[in-house]
Amino acid sequence: MALAGANQQLADTRMQLANETENERRRIARDLHDQTLSDLRRLMLLTDQLPKEKIVNGQSEIDPAVFRTEIESISTEIRHICET
To answer: Cα(5)–Cα(1) distance, rounded to whole angstroms?
Structure first.
């Protein structure tokens, strides 16, 4: 009888741990989605304000579109992580 009670308590504890783990995963995903994607969106908007291209000492600097593409790629990856 005591063994059955201990097994039930263990099963309940495992279920509670699984629920808490899932809740924490969702919280982290929500934080990533809300804050990090918002920050990346702000960076994308800032890149739109940069000059398109400059020539400095005969060399071309990186086009802001390259930064925008990288930020979009990071945003997509974060969304993918949040969905899984």
So the answer is: 6
User: Per DSSP, which regions of the chain are E strands?
Assistant: 55-56, 59-60
The confidence band for 71, taking pLDDT boundaries of 50, 70 and 90, is very high
d(CA 41, CA 38): 5
Can you tell me whether residue 10 is helix, strand or coil?
Answer: helix
d(CA 34, CA 72): 15
CB 61 within 8 A of CB 53: yes
CA-nearest of 65, 75, 9 to 39 is 75
- Please tell me the distance from the alpha carbon of residue 79 to that of residue 71, in angstroms, as a whole number: 12
At 21, list the tokens. 């783990």
Q: Is the pTM of this model over 0.90?
A: no
